[in-house]
Amino acid sequence: MRVHPSTLAEHILRADSRSIARACTLVENRAPGSVDLLKSLFPHTGRAFTLGITGAPGAGKSTLTSALVTELRRRAARVAVIAVDPSSPFTGGAVLGDRIRMLQHHADPGVFIRSMATRGALGGLAPSTHDLALVLDAAGFEWILIETVGVGQDEVDVARLAGATAVVVCPGAGDDVQAIKAGILEIASVLVINKADQPGANQLERDLSEWHVPIVRTVATTGEGIAALLEQVHKARASGPNGEAQWILRLRAMYAERILRNLDPARLAEAARLVSGRQADPYTIIEEWLNI
């Protein structure tokens, strides 16, 4: 049975978990009525704080995210998690592994966990991640944790969305630390050395100290260092970018995504035929599309 966007919005504002889940599905699938729903919810947003959690595979991002949820719930905060998993650019399928990783939180009514696939998008996030965050913000969650896919150093999209970004590394990375310095370390509000009880943690901290970003050591499996990490996140929150600066970045991304989503495949194929046959140049075609 189809529910009118305004009715669904009312249920979301009352923090009804089924309605929140339904809204996330509608928004992620770009279903009819999803934009109207977002328009209804937007005036009720702006209260949640969004923390991005990114880093290389194996650094322990999911365990760290789970530990952060535990600590935030201990402080009586309502927490939502968006766990973005890699998906095949051919089938769209995804692992959606957080269903297993964060199972301990699923029975907690103060926690909402949503898996979503990148659907082939680069940058570590799915195109609709920002819209899902707005739904969760309107639903009254005070913290929204966004864990990126962890597939490389180009996961910088989260910096456009998050109020602060925690970049997670771990001992044993070796030369990989040098490689990522030109990538995701540039977006870090705080650097997290997870698995800090393992050999090499001291050297890793020395390697990262030149970056002039706060460094926190954690052992996510035991909860060690999680409170200290939240303290640094609070400091980053106080000194982070203002809303206008963030919305400049978000609006650019939303505009680009909307243009690409609405591009007619047949029109694209015809343009490609003309360009490949040198019957037209790509610059004129794009100018025509943009009505320049």
Description:
The structure is a single chain. The chain has helices at residues 5-13, 17-28, 34-41, 61-74, 98-101, 129-138, 158-161, 176-180, 201-209, 226-239, 243-261, 265-276, 282-289, and strands at residues 49-55, 79-85, 111-117, 143-147, 164-169, 190-193, 215-217. The chain has 292 residues and is α/β, with parallel strands linked by helices. Strands 3-2-4-1-5-6-7 form a seven-stranded parallel β-sheet, sandwiched between helices. β6, α9 and β7 (215-217) form a beta-alpha-beta unit. The longest helix has 19 residues, at 243-261.
Short summary:
With 292 residues, the chain is an alpha/beta fold. 44% of the residues lie in helices and 13% in strands.
Note the main attributes of this structure.
single chain; 292 residues; alpha/beta; 7-stranded parallel sheet; 13 helices; 44% helix
Strand order, largest beta sheet:
3-2-4-1-5-6-7
Oligomer status: single chain
Radius of gyration: 20 Å
How many helical elements? 13
CATH superfamily of the largest domain: P-loop containing nucleotide triphosphate hydrolases
Helix and strand composition category: alpha/beta
Could you estimate the helical fraction of the residues in percent? 40-55%
DSSP summary, beta strand count: 7
Biggest sheet overview = 7 strands, parallel
Fill in the CATH topology of the largest domain: Rossmann fold
* Anisotropy-based shape: globular
The ordered string of helix (H) and strand (E) elements is HHHEHEHEHEHEHEHEHHHH
- Through-space gap between termini: 44 Å
Task: Report low-confidence residues grouped into runs of 5 or more.
Answer: 87-99, 120-124
Content of β-strand: 5-15%
Query: Which architecture of the largest domain does the CATH hierarchy give at level 2?
Result: 3-Layer(aba) Sandwich
Please give the domain count.
3
